[in-house]
Amino acid sequence: MKTFRGVYDTGTILTGDWQRVYLTFPRNVISASGRVNKEFTMIQKRGMCALNTLFSSALRRTAQASVIIFLIIALIGTVPLHARTSDPAVQKIPPCQSRFGIDYVFPLQNEYHDQKWAGLFAATGAGWVNFAEISWIKIEPHPPVKGIHSYHWKDLDTAVRMWQKHDFQIVLSLRMLKGWFAGPVKYNPEGIAISPLWIMNSDRLPAGSHMNDYREWIKALVERYDGDGTSDMEGLKYPVLHFQVGNEYSNPMFWTGTLDDYRILLAETYLSAKKANPKTRIISNGIRWNDMFHNDPDGTLLDSRFREFLKNLPSDSYRSVWQRAREFHEKTVELAEYYDILDAGGNGPYSTMSAGYFNWVRRELAKTGCKRTIWDMEARCEPNLTYSPITRFHKSLQIPKGNEILQALKRKGSPLHGRAELWYRAEQARIAVKVFVTRFAAGFDKVFMGMPNDWNRMTARFSTDNPYIGLTDSEGHPWPAFYAVKLLIRKIDGFSSAERVSSERNVELYRFTFSHRSRPVWVAWQDDRKVRGMDDPPCSGKVSLPAVNGPVTARKIPTDGTEATVVKIRAGEKVVIEIDQTPVIIESNSR
User: Fold this and answer.
1) For the whole prediction, is pTM greater than 0.90?
2) Domain boundaries for CATH 3.20.20.80 within the chain
């Protein structure tokens, strides 16, 4: 079985690449299944010997050097991992300005009580995290007694402290689930495959007699984490001011109220939160179009595609559900007066739908007369192994022999397991970078990537065909996608502009510029619009990038380990580089 390896040598250390040395030792020698290799101890000792050699040499040279090295050691021990960088051109971006987030962290579930998760994802450099399913019933499990509310803050407090310790900014995604306050189910579609348990536990508008309790809950939540000095959580490091109202409420698995019920809930949340603290930022429930805007960069084909999609659904019941879903998407955008940020989540590994999706959202938002920020709070990067006509429009986007690959991933005794895992995790790394890059170039202000870890050992595995959807395995051992995202964040976070640049046929080229430095960063890959499987050869070849001026350093993102492949092109040379479908990050070396 192939082993994912990092780089351990004195050269790495002597160049002052503290971040790589510090982060690589704990977790980088892992097998494709995520198990730590026995070579770890030996390599760690070798690395420490290299450090000792460096320190001893410096101490012999001057006493001043020993003082400097002591200070460096002290700083390394206290600065958060994602604040360290070996690249003098890359500055630490304050968390609130970071463009990158991690989605689907469940702080009220036992799986995420371990503090390893916050430290692990801090290493990527992402500045934001979305706390999913912050449900009212879990914080206030019993109705107030004589008007006195009793809130159970312990688990949420612990999570806030844990992630703020690593300088994350936090979004609280609010849910209710079935509780003592729940109003009646008003939407229960028949003839579709949804468990009655999902319907019973779905969110809906609180009963009229409990609407004031809802206002009090929102007020208490905002006051506890807003950092204004009134009723704040002890140990709060940063204000928590971003609150999302619901999750994908077009889906009856999550919302069984009416469209107007959501208007009421959103308005009540907005007004209550703003009253408690005017600086709060309310985020809409997520609208999700899956692959509908694939290869439609102007976003003008929705009507014709949606008609065809409805026609191909297996029953009128499904057609009714999807017609309501479209109305819900459009209604959500219309409610701009009651939110500050629109969540237009991709909900799938579709980099080819980024531009069209954003353009459609932008036009719909313009109809409201309101200017709102647009985030993607549920980007995804798992290869598209399965297809269902109930949720997808483009069957052609399914990976060839995808079901066979999925079964090989699930069965470790399969003769195809090792090869399938290596291919799958390499493809996942490519998708993660492409999704981030194309979303930013389309105009999304922030993008949150889910999932943090695979779901194959969580109860959530029963809600998806493919549970292998994480940046790490179920235990938190990083996959190549983790390191690919980490490299991308290190190179482009804090950008001031992102755009797609015309290039050769089948070449995707994107430019990122920065207000704090003059040199742009480019990201490029080949894309002939063919969906390739595990046994298909890549599209590759030498391409000219006339928009890019040398000298440059090109880094092919890691797809089978922790480190990028580096190629340098000298000054005065025409930038001609061999690339395939694996993204390459290109930096100018000129000052």
Assistant:
1) no
2) 95-494
pLDDT for 11 beyond 80: no
Query: Which CATH topology does 95-494 take?
Result: TIM Barrel (3.20.20)
Q: How far is C-alpha 276 from the geometric centre of its chain's CA atoms? A: 29
In the predicted model, is pLDDT for residue 57 greater than 70?
Answer: no
- Give the span between the Cα atoms of 186 and 193, in whole angstroms: 18
pLDDT of residue 590: 67
- The pLDDT assigned to 193 comes to 82
Spatial separation of the C-alpha atoms in residues 360 and 371, rounded to whole Å: 15
- CA–CA distance, 567 with 550 (Å, rounded to integer): 12
DSSP 421-470: HHHHHHHHHHHHHHHHHHHHHHT-SEEEE--SB--TTSGGGGG-S-----
Q: How far apart are CA 438 and CA 499, in angstroms?
A: 9
**CB neighbour list of residue 224: distance below 8 Å, 6 or more residues apart:** 153, 231, 232, 233
Residue carrying structure tokens 């079985």 = 1
325 conformational bin, left if phi > 0, alpha if psi -120 to 50, beta if neither: alpha
Residue 285, both tokens: 């429930």
| Residue 426: pLDDT over 90 | yes
Does residue 104 sit in helix, strand or coil? strand
- The residue-averaged pLDDT of 143-171 equals 97
Task: Give the Å distances, CA to CA, from 308 to 261, 319, 561.
Answer: 30, 11, 42
Which tens digit of pLDDT belongs to each residue from 465-522? Answer: 999 999 999 999 999 999 999 999 999 999 999 999 999 999 999 999 999 888 999 9
Average pLDDT, the chain: 86
β-pairing, 521-526 with 584-588? antiparallel
Using the structure block, give the residue that is written with the tokens 């992630």: 163
The backbone region for 76, taken as left when phi is positive above 0, alpha when psi lies in -120 to 50, beta otherwise, is alpha
With beta carbons less than 8 A apart as the criterion, state whether 552 and 587 touch.
yes
Helix count and strand count (H, E) for the chain:
16, 19
Q: How many other CB atoms are found less than 10 A from the CB of residue 170?
A: 23
Instruction: Please check whether residue 283 is in contact with residue 375, taking contact to mean a CB–CB distance below 8 angstroms.
Output: yes
